[in-house]
Each structure stands twice: as C-alpha cells, then as structure tokens.
Amino acid sequence: MWIIIQVGKQTTQTPSDLEAVDCKVIRGSTDNQGNIVITIPLSMRSVSTPNNETLVYQVAYYSSNVNKTINDSAFPVGNLDGIHEFYVRH
Question: What is the Cα–Cα distance from 49 to 26, expressed in whole angstroms?
Fold first, then answer.
C-alpha cells in the first residue's frame, strides 16, 4: 500500500487558503485486524505556525505506486477511499 501525506497551513477554513508545505509518498501496512498503520514523518509533525495557522493533513491510500509533490494541486486519481483530512491547531 502506498500513502500520500500532504501537510499545509490554513488561516481560515476555505480550500483556497490552504498552502501546502510538505508532501510525501510513503509505504503503509496493516495490522492484524486490517487497520492501516502509518507513521507521519517527523518533518511533517514539526511544521512551524508563527501566525497561528491551522495545520491540515491530507491523506490518501493507493494500491499501487503514485507520485505527488507540493507543486501538484490535485491528488492522483485512483485512491482507495477518498482523501482524508485532519485539522490540527497548536
């Protein structure tokens, strides 16, 4: 399983305000109960928010290798169950 994780900063909750700051494609696995297990890279967990921005983590799962950079506005087609978003405030 391949997983795209993208983290961005957002000052208001509108999609146009989201600024991607890092994006990675990592390998994922499942535990003995079938739950997906991933580790968010340290660089993506320590993003600075000097202007009190909300961090938005976007995660998508794929059955085959994919590519995405922060310069790509859209996630590749073919993800398994949509793009999941998690919001974090410091």
Answer: 24
